[in-house]
Amino acid sequence: LDEVRHKQVITSANQLLYQWWTQILERCDLRSIDRIEVDQFIQSVAQQMSDMGVFSLPRKSFVAKEPIIAVLVSEGLLVDNASKVTFMHQTYLDYFVVNSYLNQVIAGKAVTDIIGDRDHQTPNLRYRFLVLLQELCEYDETIFVKQCREILGSDNVRHYYKCTVFDAAAQPNQPGEGIR
């Protein structure tokens, strides 16, 4: 991170990734590359990877986006590979997917609908599920508690997924009444 961002209090990996992503978008502005187009591109790549259950996509699909890919490679977000587009680390992919999930929940979608049926509740998705709950707890405790009650009451959610409710609820330094 830039020197200015070093002084900010960061308490989670997602907050760190948010600061870094914001910095990347600011650097795109300096390079006269449209930050909205960059954001839409990375959101699309992350969504496609998540939907398909893959960690790379054919680079040929993004020929028109080469300037964006070049910037994201230089910033260390993507890997420079002639045949495919890949994130440098899975944590980056998870960050964008979790933000998409968070927006869906805020818009009214149930977390249980996002995670799907028991057959799709994999260890990789469990990590994203945990981060989603942590972000949701930080964003709005009322929505968090409502979603957690639904998760804990569902017969379609695996027990090792239900444990993430308690992990996320234990995170806040000053939990509100609904969590206590």
Short description:
By secondary structure, the protein is mainly alpha-helical. It has helices at 3-6, 13-30, 35-52, 66-74, 90-106, 111-115, 123-139, 141-153, 159-169; strands spanning 56-58, 78-79, 84-87.
Give the structural class: mainly alpha
Q: Assess the beta-strand content as a share of residues.
A: 5-15%
Amino- and carboxy-terminal Cα gap: 36 Å
Overall average residue pLDDT: 90
Oligomer: single chain
- Rg over alpha carbons: 18 Å
Binned, the helix content reads 55-70%
Which key features would you list for this structure?
180 residues, mainly alpha, three-stranded antiparallel beta sheet, globular
Characterize the structure shown.
By secondary structure, the chain is mostly helical. The chain has helices spanning 3-6, 13-30, 35-52, 66-74, 90-106, 111-115, 123-139, 141-153, 159-169; strands spanning 56-58, 78-79, 84-87. Strand 2 and strand 3 form a beta hairpin. The longest helix is centred in the N-terminal third of the chain and has 18 residues, at 13-30. The model has no long low-confidence stretch (mean pLDDT 90).
SSE topology sketch:
Elements lengths: L2 H4 L6 H18 L4 H18 L3 E3 L7 H9 L3 E2 L4 E4 L2 H17 L4 H5 L7 H17 L1 H13 L5 H11 L11
Antiparallel strand pairs: 1-3, 2-3
Helix pairs in contact: 3-5, 5-7, 7-8, 7-9
